[in-house]
């Protein structure tokens, strides 16, 4: 029997319930799940968040394999995706932020922002790996462009790039859901 591979983007605002929805989708068919976490420990608050997420996953999804990858997401997806499994990536906008600040340089408050040297290559590699994934993939991303235009060049660059990334991923995915207040809204595909 030939099984169809499905790529799903689940996006929404902060604390919208998007990660919980993505986890439900990943677990739904009972397939093995490889969870790719993109967060990097940058300060005490982020360290505490990562520790909490690890604890929650180990309690609820102890049988899931976790891979932590902050920059080479395309390579991680290509290695993890196999027929008959699910790769869950949480989250694309954290990964985008990791790429943006990967060279640990200062950005101007005004003017043009030059992306880090590896940005375009990593983005392209990720989109290629996603489009060629032989197994199911569920991706979590933030919608950051629905509010006011942020002040500062780097913030505007990030909002623009996050929007472009979400559009590129949504174009590849067979299914797209927007989550608000814990409620998923199907934008593309079906709830089959």
UniProtKB/TrEMBL annotation:
The chemistry this enzyme catalyses reads:
adenosylcob(III)inamide phosphate + GTP + H(+) = adenosylcob(III)inamide-GDP + diphosphate; adenosylcob(III)inamide + ATP = adenosylcob(III)inamide phosphate + ADP + H(+); adenosylcob(III)inamide + GTP = adenosylcob(III)inamide phosphate + GDP + H(+)
Q: Which GO terms describe its molecular function?
A: kinase activity
From the UniProt record, give the pathway where this protein acts. Cofactor biosynthesis; adenosylcobalamin biosynthesis; adenosylcobalamin from cob(II)yrinate a,c-diamide: step 6/7; Cofactor biosynthesis; adenosylcobalamin biosynthesis; adenosylcobalamin from cob(II)yrinate a,c-diamide: step 5/7
Could you tell me which SUPFAM superfamilies the record lists for this protein?
P-loop containing nucleoside triphosphate hydrolases
Query: EC number(s)?
Result: 2.7.1.156, 2.7.7.62
The region annotated as signal peptide is none
Which InterPro entries would you find in this protein's record?
CobU/CobP (IPR003203), P-loop_NTPase (IPR027417)
Q: Which UniProt keywords apply?
A: ATP-binding, Cobalamin biosynthesis, GTP-binding, Kinase, Nucleotide-binding, Transferase
Its top-level enzyme class, in one word, is transferase
Q: What does this protein do?
A: Catalyzes ATP-dependent phosphorylation of adenosylcobinamide and addition of GMP to adenosylcobinamide phosphate.
Q: Which NCBIfam families match?
A: PRK05800.1
In which family does this protein belong, per the annotation? Answer: Belongs to the CobU/CobP family.
Supply the name of the protein: Bifunctional adenosylcobalamin biosynthesis protein
Organism of origin is Herbaspirillum hiltneri N3
